[in-house]
Please model this.
Amino acid sequence: MSFFYLFAVLAVLLVVPFIYFRISTKGQSKKKTSILYGVVAYLLTTLLKMILMATFLPDSDQEEADFTAQFEPVSAIITIVVSSLDALGCFLALRACSGHSEIRIFGVSFAWSSAESILSFFFVSWIGCLKPEFNWVYMQNALGSNINLLKQIAFTHIIWVLWKGKFQNPDKRNIFIWLSAFFITPELFKLSEVLLSKFFIFGWVLLVLKFAVAYGLFITSKKIYQSFEQLNNNKKKN
Amino acid sequence: MKYFPRRSQTILCFFVLTFVFNSITVKSLETLPVFRLLHSEQVSSSTGKTFIRGTTSASVPSSQTKAYFECAEYLKKTPKTLTNLDQDTDIENETEEEIPHNEQEEFVKCFKGAVAVFPLFSLLEFDISALSEGGSCKGILIVLPRDLLTTKAKEFVTFQNEEGRESKEEIIKKLGEIESILVEKEFRVPIYFVHEDEVSHLFSFDNLNPNKKGSYNLKIVGKPGNKKKIKQVSSLEAWLPTDLDEEGKLKPTIVLTANYDTFSVSPALSSGLESGNNAVGVLVELSRLFTKLYNNPQTKGQYNLLFVLNGGSKQNYLGTKKWISSVDRKVLESVELVLCLDSLSIYDDDLENELTDDLFLHYSTGGKIEIGKTVPTEFQSISKLFGINTQIVTKKIMKNNPLISFEHEIFYRKKLKAITVSNFKSYNQTIRKGSLLDLQSGSNPTARPMKTVTTLIAEFLSKMIYKQQQQQQQITIFENNFEPNNLVIESINKMLLKYNRFSPFLEKDDQLLLNLENTFKSFGLDTKIESKKISLKKETFYYTGTQGKLTIFQVKSLLFEFFVFIMSLVYLAVLYYFLNGKEKTIQEIKQLIHNRKKNN
Model:
């Protein structure tokens, strides 16, 4: 493959989050601090997750996507607890930075997903795109990272709402938000990938379906956030 | 679509379009073993660059296999269909025309800058020497089916003559001629061989259409070839003695010989058995049976038995010549008969002439020693008991002719009585000379069980050893407990199939010889491996680096990748447009243009 393909992949991987962030936070200040906290939070959270997984997760020969394998409760609990550290990291980053709520949400989610993209796909794509064999997987990874950005924004919205609405009257809607924040959002994504691979759906079709799931989460979380913001504004007026 | 704003609908459409315009799933890297043509050497190409023929260090650039398939479709048509036939033409007057020379040239042009990928049998339709100059073609990859002489290969051939499909014998002969061209003619392109089952999922030759469309890049990595002379040839002897006579001298000896080496146009593919090596298993089993008999003093024979495995058989029986010149004089003087075992199995029941159910007993005449008719007649009569027809073939020895047709001629020239048992009538049959067609992947279910031939030879030897009188009822020894074990023969054959047995590349301490030596030792025989140095008047060089690794990449053209780059920019622009909004984007563009004009 040539440099054209490399530039195409890197453009999709790096430029798209930047475009989204720039447009979403136009005219706002204190963007850099939120980005910085987001990156630091992601790096520390990932490091902690790796240490905990390596320390506590027992060795298993079973594949992740193998549902016919025996269910191991200890491994499942450890995986869920470790996954929930993402929510904690996000929450701490949101708390540390200052500024308008949208700046903080978009800044942290942009930084988080960009850091994830660079560490997961950037170097792999750089080496892979210059190999003689053409492979769509690098472009698919780059588009997948764009979809992860949507997912991350949804996730961060929910964390925000959960944090700010913490001392509100707990009701069924808050419990749903709680569940989706800690379990459903990250796990749903992984689950959807696993289920789709069970039906032998890979490549571009999987990408389209992932986008549909991510977009659904994004819309839902945005609606929840908007309704929460409206509620808050009404309370302030009163 | 209440929750899907208009801008996001467009993004969704873009994803769908992306999926639609390219639905190819990409094959990952394939790394396969390949085998290089014999006699590769450093030559200068027409462009002045030097490269090693059959090179393993240069990469073969992008191949256009699609070009091959298009040309192959074109040539698939018989000569009759290439010419314009009127419907009123009398069928009897139709004459066959060869493919015109200019069309051959057109075919060669198809491979310009590409690698020519040929299934082996398609070489029958195309003169491969046309690619020998190599100016246009970058390399040749010949795809070999695993079991070449099976019916699958027969169906593959599409060449037709007036009588209908060619017989297998003719096909084998033609392929033999092609192999001769490959060895004798100087090719300025690298030629490699690969097994069909390893590339079939990439290149499907059943209907000559590729499974995956697109270009492939073929790269071969391996050690560069070094020049190598034949330095030595090894022989393995196993001695089964009987008691000395009253005067303390050696009793008569019967020598049984077979050859363990073979030949192929690709040295790394020299592992077949049909050229004469299936006798090794028979010889080993005979040694086991007679050792069992000789261990019992009551059944100990009156003859010493010497089992010899020689190399260098495809180099005009170099190994046998060296062995006989170095063997102990006393042993040589005691030799009463030399029984040379050549190829002893048949391959396919429906073959005609090339390989038959018959065995052939060869011996020489015209020298100072005559073998007489007793031995051949005895062999014939015993073989009839086993349902095998043995034909006797005699040939007058030509002292001035250095070419050795069968192994017994070497012993005959040394004034020893010798016969060769073979299922080949003629010495120059394709498979016997050593061929790519001799690529057994496993046991052949249609082949005659080797046990029958082994029993026949054992009974023949026992008649001599135990001096059995001619009786109306023949006494057979080798039955029940003394029946030859087919498993022993098959296990030896399987072991031979694992090794490349091209003689110039075999060393004295080669694992094959050591394994055979251990086998003889396990029966209780005295064995020894002797290596003789060789110095020929005319030096023959061979080149190492006979194997490599072929990596096949599926590649896209530069234009396609540029197109992907442009599409990714379009994707970014569209995303920006729909996230920013129509009015804002237009405003920003106007401002950008305005600022540029201001700066200018």
In short: The longest helix of chain A spans residues 203-237. Chain A is about 80% helix and 0% strand. Confidence is low (pLDDT under 50) at residues 65-69 of chain A. Residues 124 and 138 of chain A are 8 Å apart (CA to CA).
